[in-house]
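In practice, a research group might receive sequence data for several interacting partners and want a quick structural hypothesis before committing to experiments. The following worked case mirrors that situation: the sequences arrive first, and a predicted assembly follows.
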Amino acid sequence: MSSQNLTIVQAVRDGLYTEMNLDDEVLVMGEDVGKNGGVFRATEGLWNEFGDDRVIDTPLAESGIIGTAVGMAAMGLKPVPEIQFSGFMYPGFDQIVSHMSRFRNRTRGRYTLPMVLRAPYGGGIRAPESHSESKEMFYAHEAGLKVVIPSTPYDTKGLLISAIRDPDPVIFMEPKLIYRAFRGEVPEEEYTVPIGEAAVRREGTDVSVFTFGAMTRPTLEAVENLEEEGIDAEVVDIRTISPLDRETIVESFKKTGRAVVVHEAPKNGGLGAEITATIQEEALLYQEAPVKRVAGYDVPYPLYALEDYYLPSVARVEEGIREAVNF
Amino acid sequence: MSVLQRDPQDQVRVLDENGTVVGEVPDIDDETLVEMYRYMRLARHFDTRAVSLQRQGRMGTYPPLSGQEGAQIGSAIALDEQDWMVPSYREHGASLLRGLPLKQTLLYWMGHEKGNEMPEGVNLFPPAVPIASQIPHATGAAWAKKLQGEDDTAVICYFGDGATSEGDFHEGLNFAGVFDTPNVFFCNNNQWAISVPRERQTASETLAQKATAYGIDGVQVDGMDPLAVYSVTKAALDKAKNPAEGEGRPTLIEAVQYRFGAHTTADDPTVYRDDEEVEKWKAKDPIPRLESFLRETGRIDDEAVEAIEADVKQRVADAIEAAESDPRPDPSEMFNHAYAERTPEIQAQYEEFEALREKFGDEGFLRE
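A structural hypothesis for the assembly, expressed as tokens:
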């Protein structure tokens, strides 16, 4: 297999390109995805390649974008709508929770929605107001949706192709802080990374650190720093927020007996709460310390002058790990 | 007959591209006319400097307004003191005229919440970033004034051509029609919603004609003609407060104009539009048009223009100096305004945060 050295945003583009070449039913739609190639260039060149009917610039209307994608998907197309920033998904929230998630259930499987709703999410890029929030749990709370968040270029392409081929609707949230932060090997050919499987990024025995998206970076850095203190941490990249890979979480925890969860989203009702509950339910007797959550605070995401104080930093992650280990 | 009662295709004009009078000059005193010009120059110079601050890394992403000064200033100057303004995120000029210091606009785009702390007596909502989301607020605010019996107050709401595609546009205007609220819905049709041209937003021939479906007046105006903008806005504000028998209060104004620059500093318009088109619209620049009219009618001369230029430069330089010397917001500010009082949970998070700051200092948080 030949491979390319791509960033995450290039891997998104490559995943779309690969699957659009293989399957005529796949189409891309959204605001500025056509001639402009997307505001992050995630759809760059696709309009020239596939034309107006498969790479569609829509009017500025998120409910319209998501709602019409539902209708298209019900007719057998495989739309991949893009919402420019996850902070603008809310005009389409009704479509997501009332229809996108429920068409299969409401029609007893007669109509299904093989669609993927893509959106960049998360903070740390000095963006304007409403451009930095992490609200993955809104969608994880909704039965009938799958919620995927990649953290490497390889996973991005593989998970995106899985998402497009999935018979059910997928919310594909892209960590824009690391859109161009680094490159990785990405095969030119088609391949998939399975939805619903976490990845152990680093094996360790003292503590399990669960994270995803852009927070995998400060987490891995913190864990490396802590080696000097004699702490051997395992890092699990959750990758699929829903359905959650509880098996990998529990397996890792049984090995270490200690856990830290790192995410940008607010602590209250964040994925950390679900992981903690899973550990309580399935591995209570292995537990040696309280589960530590290093997360966003339960306040509105600040404008960018203060965003570094809001997001989990390397020092905060290190301190959280020490707390769990030294309990 | 009112300037508002006309075919939506029949664009209101007062000055042509050269500043020659082609319509009815509104009744504005000389001083206000010169102020209109001064504020347009101020908005343009501020905009140029703001873009360069962003380029130099002294400010974050910023949405430029150049080309839209005629619409912003021509409309905002028609407001009475008690009126309210509900802006989108591009109305730096209109907001300035309503009383928001330039320093605060800069602070907002520099990522400080303080930029949105309206000074007492400034009847202005904070900028709304999600497209069209402010339109129902404007309807609600106007409705409140009506319910509170304050018949002398109207609410102007700004939004772009792209916003007319959103559900909130429909819902806001529909409520306004049903409850006959004192609103002026001011659409800055600058032809482009980032890369999507106006023709692709709607199959309607004009945006103004959408008013018809809500049972309210819709009028199209040359948005790069500040005098025409003033005329229609003034008429719409007067009608909102004091409609004639059988007249509805709300109005939709479509101000046809062009954004000379990018959507924001993160955008590159050369990808999606031609220089030729930009040049065509630059010939309609509202500032030389008004200047030419004011010179021709003896209201300003070289000396006055020079004085205005110097004043404008000084005011912008002072605002930048003030914004940049403003202390960084204290990080604990994050925890202060989610609710009237910190909840026990937020208080606990605040204490944990302060303990970490104590231990690691700011270096424990700041990324390069």
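Before designing any experiment, note the following. The radius of gyration of chain B is 22 Å. The longest strand of chain B covers residues 183-189.
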